[in-house]
Specification:
The protein is α/β, with parallel strands linked by helices. The protein has 13 helices and 16 strands. Bound molecules: pyridoxal-5'-phosphate.
Length: 448
């Protein structure tokens, strides 16, 4: 661990720690497929995918080839001032892959955060309304608009106000830890009733431009709404002319067993926001929306000098080709189903596991101190991650209470790697339940 510890030490002196949620001193020196090697030559299996980014695996050869060949042609062109074909090819692909049988246009950016800011700008300019509704527990990023939409932790906003005005937050349908203390389906979707009350008593619906939603909340700890939920929300939005903005930055591109997670509910959004896995890790985001909305936006409302970077576009086109050809949405669903089954078996062995939930290969393992009270077991989750890392598995914990193990490997992970990783996970949980991971490791972990 000599080299790793030395780099971490230097990092702590020179890099802003405002972007770091520390887990363990992993210093990446190489990655391929579902494997990572650290600076001291240790090998790991990847259950994190660089935060749901490397959906087709690290350094996929086709993506590497596309990057190399484009870098030799031209590395930069500002989309604002002249044309090139790559963003056009990519936009045509994105328009046909995203749900919604209507004419679409695409606006590019660089990060999931700026896609969220763009969505606010688009919604306000297209509707002439100002108010935006978002969900408690959501994470949308850290630019001012995205930060305002987010409600994942009060710490991320501390001292940064005033944030954007006219953004309202409502409870997300979390059926394991219901904010109203109710049980589904007996609750009759009380959280929907809350939204209706808000529109009746506090916010005039005809002043609301958009609802921005994660179809499955990711960083909140993989919260999957009940089956008819988004259908009903869409109906309410349509009734009042509120745009339904589907934020798929984490859930998009095959991760949940569909190309886009909203397809699990069969709802057509007015806009889809994507980033993370689109270019296998090169910076890129996109807003894909109805043409008639985009046509009401005036330039340069959403222009970035390095948007639709040619190398990122080439990487994105290659990434989408791999996803389509290998039908990775189907693979995610199949492999995810198997992983869920294995994790549910572990519930029989470990009381520490309160719930296993997710879709495809976006899975959360919710650790609890007591299955009856569902009290979150954050320290235990951190210790499991630490021990897993020591044994060769990269995994983090997240969630509203920081107690959910995040299972999100590359969708291309091989069977043997998967078995090894699940074995490490089981051993690590066993170690923690037997008190074999000391409290001292927690000192190093700022974490979620
Ligand atoms: C759902 C969701 N939206 C937006 C973001 C922000 O993306 P970025 O970090 O690329 O700005 C994230 C990042 O974790 C996310 O999970």
């Amino acid at each position: 661990m000599k080299k790793c510890l030395e780099v971490v030490e230097r990092d702590r002196r020179v890099i802003s720690q405002a972007s770091r949620l520390a887990y363990y001193p992993l210093v990446v020196s190489r990655a391929e497929g579902a494997k990572i090697w650290d600076a001291d030559g240790n090998e790991y299996i990847d259950f994190l995918s660089g935060a749901a980014v490397t959906n087709i695996g690290h350094c996929h050869p086709e993506v590497v080839r596309a990057i190399e060949s484009q870098a030799k042609r031209f590395i930069h062109n500002t989309l604002g001032y002249s044309y090139y074909e790559l963003p056009v090819i990519l936009a045509e692909r994105l328009a046909s892959l995203t749900p919604g049988g209507f004419r679409k246009r695409v606006a590019f950016g660089l990060s999931g955060s700026d896609a969220n800011d763009g969505a606010i700008k688009l919604a306000r300019s297209a509707t002439g309304r100002q108010k935006i509704i978002s969900y408690l527990g959501s994470y949308h990023g850290t630019t001012y608009g995205a930060l305002t939409l987010s409600a994942a932790s009060p710490h991320m906003k501390r001292g940064l106000g005033p944030l954007l005005p006219e953004v309202y937050h409502i409870p997300y349908p979390d059926c394991y830890r219901c904010p109203f203390g109710l049980e589904h389906p007996g609750c009759g979707l009380h959280c929907l009733g809350y939204m209706k009350e808000l529109l009746r008593l506090l916010i005039p619906p005809d002043e609301v431009a958009a609802l921005v939603l994660e179809p499955i909340q990711g960083d909140a700890g993989v919260i999957v709404p009940p089956q008819d939920f988004w259908v009903e929300v869409k109906r309410i939005c349509e009734e009042h002319g509120i745009l339904f903005i589907d934020e798929e930055v984490q859930t998009g591109f095959c991760r949940t067993g569909r190309w886009f997670a909203i397809e699990h509910w069969g709802v057509e959004p007015d806009a889809v926001l994507v980033a993370k896995p689109i270019a296998s890790g090169l910076p890129m985001s996109a807003i894909i929306s109805r043409s008639e909305l985009m046509e009401r936006w005036s330039a340069p409302a959403h222009l970035f000098t390095t948007e639709a970077n040619p190398v990122s576009c080439a990487a994105a086109i290659a990434t989408l080709e791999v996803m389509e050809r290998e039908r990775l949405h189907e693979r995610a669903e199949r492999v995810g189903g198997y992983v869920m089954k294995r994790l549910e078996e572990l519930m029989g062995r470990f009381e520490l596991i309160g719930e296993v939930r997710g879709r495809g290969l976006l899975i959360g393992v919710d650790l609890v101190k007591d299955r009856r009270t569902r009290e979150p077991a954050r320290a235990e989750a951190l210790k499991v991650c630490w021990r897993a890392w020591e044994r060769g598995l990269v995994m983090i914990s997240f969630g509203r209470f920081g107690n959910v193990l995040r299972i999100a490997p590359p969708l291309t992970i091989g069977n043997e790697e998967l078995e090894r990783a699940l074995g490490i996970l089981e051993e690590s949980i066993d170690d923690v339940t037997k008190g074999r991971v000391p409290d001292t490791v927690l000192r190093e972990m700022s974490a979620w």
